[in-house]
């Protein structure tokens, strides 16, 4: 009898303690993930606050704010209240191609399927050629989204057009429809390391790439959620690329933070092929008063 | 009464003769046919191997790349969709218009239509980067996308075409069931099942006539829709050469012209190999050739309409595209399509000697080749003229020469069409027997009345 009682007691307590332990560990992890500790030392990194201001923080602090992983459902909605835009100052580009390299590195791309291209453009025979960095324009009236038969590519509330490469059937209608040739296709098995293929896929990271599906510039929503600028913006040595939020009317190239409306007004900002009615969210500033003569930059 | 009886006996006797003759083509053993079928199977097998390679390594085995992101798979798809339109031309439009001489051609055209639309559906799956996700089209289908319109309308057309082939064939299948006794058991069983207990009862005949008429009317808008919607796959984009309101009628008229050519080629070879000279006469070739001239003229009109405006204005990339076609890389192909593929049939077939079976068949081959390359010219050069210049890419991105895998799969799709046609021609009476007899009887009744 007594033996039995002790046994029952132990079983009950076991359940109780296990429950407590479980609850405790959940709470503990939550608490740990919320606390921030500032450690001395480390590199200083520029980040944009949700208000669009630029501030420098310690790299060690940054590691606490791990870039947010968005699941498929979350990545379809977009970040509430935001309208992301980009501005490209054509006067400053010298074809350094750092944006391409940074993009390639972070998205694990090979040079044959770039998300960014720097094109040599000459508007007419008498005007001087200039370099035009071009990526997906994240159109408000996106032809690619309109034609997709399965909704694998979609427009979010924060202006970003993304691709779900786990739904894409590889029909390439979006590539035919995009007037800006912004999209690339994984014709073969994408070359990426085992570590990369093991990463859990999110449309916000476009990683890992999958054979037989379409890809393109995604405006790095994972970086934005982590309160960081997209890789191309920070990589540009000349501050050509500005990124920001139209709702806040602010864009930054990592050094200067400026009013979007003022910048576009003062420098006669335009959108490429406005007449197509695609309503791009990437603006260009005309290549006037250039920082670099074109000849010197042609490698 | 007695007079009536004797004429009816005469008719019965003649009908028996016709039935016997037309049923004799069903399953007639022939060594040439065996070789033909083996040859087709070999081509299909090579195509399957190429497709296995494509499944294994991805679309990298094709010559398609970014920019030229659609290739001969898509142009071949458009081609087969165009071929499938003849089903509606002959078995519906001509039939509804009570063009009497066209009756013997209905089954041939309907068989070609079914074979072509099946292979068009297959080729579009071959073009997919992820054929394993085909069901996403059903799970996540967006009705706003022209591809979904195309899927829906092709399925509808396939079903109507199969019904339009099968239902009017019921009396003939019943004949096969009743009269072909010394054939293998599985074929006896097949005819028995497929005949759906057809007994030539008045009620059955009445219902069949009604159903056939409904199908014949229904197939016309669907046939126009398949090719118009296929043209919208292109017209709904901003590409030069595709951004045209003319594209729908242009595609449909081109398809009718191609369809007439295909039926002429089919008539020629079927007549020869099944010895059907009594049923497919030289007169048929003469009349089909006249139809082909008419359809070519209609197509010529839309063709001029398609190129004159852009060529007159020469706006930006549209102008580049036109230059490339008229005098650039694609000029040879373009003028081959225009001159032997379009002008020649009009010129040759205007004359009586040009409407002789052999000449008509040769000219129709030119039309067929022209039509295939025309689809190539519709799809590929447009993709190579985007708004933004193509820079920083591998040399292979600038041109498009289909790889052996693409050619093998394309040839296999042709072999597939021919195989389906051959098998159906072997299994069923080629000339609609019951219909033929009815028309002959009616014809005689009318002539005696006069």
UniProtKB/TrEMBL annotation, chain A:
Gene3D superfamilies assigned to the protein according to its UniProt record, in alphabetical order: 3.30.70.20
Which residues does the UniProt record annotate as the domain 4Fe-4S ferredoxin-type? 127-158, 159-188
Signal peptide position in this chain?
A: none
Q: Which UniProt keywords apply?
A: 4Fe-4S, Iron, Iron-sulfur, Metal-binding
A Pfam cross-reference name: Fer4_11
Determine if Lipoprotein is one of this entry's keywords: no
What would you give as a GO molecular function for this chain, any one?
Answer: metal ion binding
Q: Which PANTHER family match?
A: PROTEIN NRFC, PROTEIN NRFC HOMOLOG
**Name of the protein:** 4Fe-4S dicluster domain-containing protein
Q: Which organism does this record belong to?
A: Ancylomarina euxinus
Automatic annotation (TrEMBL), chain B:
Looking at the keywords, is Cell membrane present? yes
Q: Is Lipid metabolism a UniProt keyword of this protein?
A: no
Enumerate the InterPro entries for this protein. Answer: NrfD-like
Topology class, membrane? Multi-pass membrane protein
Subcellular compartments: Cell membrane
Any Pfam family: NrfD
Transmembrane regions? 32-52, 72-96, 108-126, 146-167, 214-235, 247-270, 291-312, 332-351, 358-380, 407-428
Q: Which GO terms describe its cellular component?
A: plasma membrane
Q: Which UniProt keywords apply?
A: Cell membrane, Membrane, Transmembrane, Transmembrane helix
Which family is this protein grouped under? Answer: Belongs to the NrfD family.
Q: What is the name of the protein in this document?
A: Polysulfide reductase
Q: Which organism is it from?
A: Ancylomarina euxinus
């Amino acid at each position: 009898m007594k033996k039995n009682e002790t046994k029952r007691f132990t079983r009950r307590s076991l359940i109780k303690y296990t429950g407590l332990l479980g609850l405790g560990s959940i709470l503990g992890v939550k608490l740990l993930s919320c606390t921030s500790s500032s450690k001395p030392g480390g590199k200083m990194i520029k980040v944009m606050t949700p208000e669009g201001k630029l501030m420098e923080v310690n790299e060690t602090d940054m590691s606490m704010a791990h870039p947010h992983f968005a699941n498929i459902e979350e990545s379809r909605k977009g970040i509430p209240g935001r309208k992301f835009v980009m501005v490209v100052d054509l006067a400053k580009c010298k074809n350094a191609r750092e944006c391409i390299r940074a993009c390639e590195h972070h998205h694990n791309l090979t040079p044959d399927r770039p998300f960014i291209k720097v094109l040599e453009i000459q508007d007419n025979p008498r005007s001087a050629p200039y370099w035009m960095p071009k990526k997906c324009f994240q159109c408000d009236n996106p032809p690619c989204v309109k034609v997709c038969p399965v909704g694998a590519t979609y427009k979010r509330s924060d202006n970003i057009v993304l691709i779900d490469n786990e739904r894409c059937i590889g029909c390439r209608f979006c590539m035919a429809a995009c007037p800006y040739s912004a999209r690339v296709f994984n014709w073969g098995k994408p070359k990426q390391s085992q570590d990369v293929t093991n990463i859990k896929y999110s449309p916000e990271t476009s990683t890992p790439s999958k054979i037989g599906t379409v890809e393109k510039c995604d405006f790095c929503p994972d970086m934005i959620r982590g309160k960081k600028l997209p890789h191309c913006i920070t990589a540009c040595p000349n501050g050509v690329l500005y990124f920001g939020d139209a709702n806040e009317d602010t864009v930054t190239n990592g050094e200067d933070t400026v009013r979007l409306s003022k910048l576009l007004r003062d420098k006669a900002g335009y959108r490429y092929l406005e007449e197509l009615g695609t309503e791009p969210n990437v603006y260009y500033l005309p290549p006037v008063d250039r920082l670099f003569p074109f000849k010197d930059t042609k490698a | 009464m007695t007079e009536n009886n004797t004429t009816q006996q005469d008719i019965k006797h003649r009908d028996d003769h016709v039935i016997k003759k037309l049923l004799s083509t069903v399953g007639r053993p022939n060594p040439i046919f065996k070789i033909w079928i083996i040859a087709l199977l070999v081509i299909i097998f090579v195509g399957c191997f190429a497709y296995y390679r494509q499944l294994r390594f991805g679309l990298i085995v094709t010559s398609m790349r970014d920019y030229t992101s659609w290739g001969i798979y898509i142009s071949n798809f458009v081609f087969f969709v165009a071929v499938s339109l003849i089903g509606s031309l002959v078995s519906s439009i001509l039939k509804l218009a009570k063009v009497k001489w066209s009756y013997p051609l209905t089954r041939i055209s309907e068989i070609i239509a079914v074979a072509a639309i099946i292979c068009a559906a297959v080729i579009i799956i071959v073009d997919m980067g992820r054929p394993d996700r085909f069901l996403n089209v059903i799970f996540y289908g967006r009705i706003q996308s022209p591809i979904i319109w195309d899927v829906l309308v092709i399925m509808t057309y396939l079903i109507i075409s199969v019904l339009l082939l099968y239902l009017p064939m019921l009396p003939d299948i019943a004949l096969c069931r009743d009269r072909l006794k010394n054939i293998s058991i599985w074929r006896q069983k097949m005819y028995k099942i497929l005949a759906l207990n057809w007994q030539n009862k008045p009620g059955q005949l009445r219902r069949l006539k009604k159903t056939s008429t409904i199908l014949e009317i229904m197939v016309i808008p669907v046939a126009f829709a398949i090719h118009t919607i296929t043209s919208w796959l292109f017209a709904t984009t901003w590409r030069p050469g595709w951004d045209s309101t003319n594209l729908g009628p242009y595609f449909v008229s081109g398809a009718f012209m191609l369809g007439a050519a295909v039926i002429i080629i089919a008539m020629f070879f079927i007549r020869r190999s099944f010895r059907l000279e009594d049923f497919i006469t030289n007169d048929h070739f003469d009349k089909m050739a006249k139809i082909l001239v008419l359809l070519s003229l209609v197509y010529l009109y839309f063709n001029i309409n398609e190129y004159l405006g852009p060529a007159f204005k020469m706006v930006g990339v549209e102008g580049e595209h036109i230059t490339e076609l008229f005098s650039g890389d694609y000029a040879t192909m373009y003028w081959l399509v225009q001159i032997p593929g379009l002008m020649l049939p009009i010129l040759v077939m205007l004359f009586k000697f040009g409407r002789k079976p052999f000449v008509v068949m040769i000219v129709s081959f030119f039309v067929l080749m022209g039509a295939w390359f025309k689809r190539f010219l519709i799809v590929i050069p447009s993709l190579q003229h985007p708004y933004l210049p193509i820079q920083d890419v591998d040399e292979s991105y600038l041109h498009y020469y289909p790889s052996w895998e693409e050619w093998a799969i394309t040839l296999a799709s042709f072999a597939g069409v021919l195989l389906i046609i051959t098998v159906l021609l072997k299994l069923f009476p080629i000339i609609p027997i019951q219909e033929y007899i009815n028309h002959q009887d009616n014809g005689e009744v009318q002539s005696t009345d006069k």
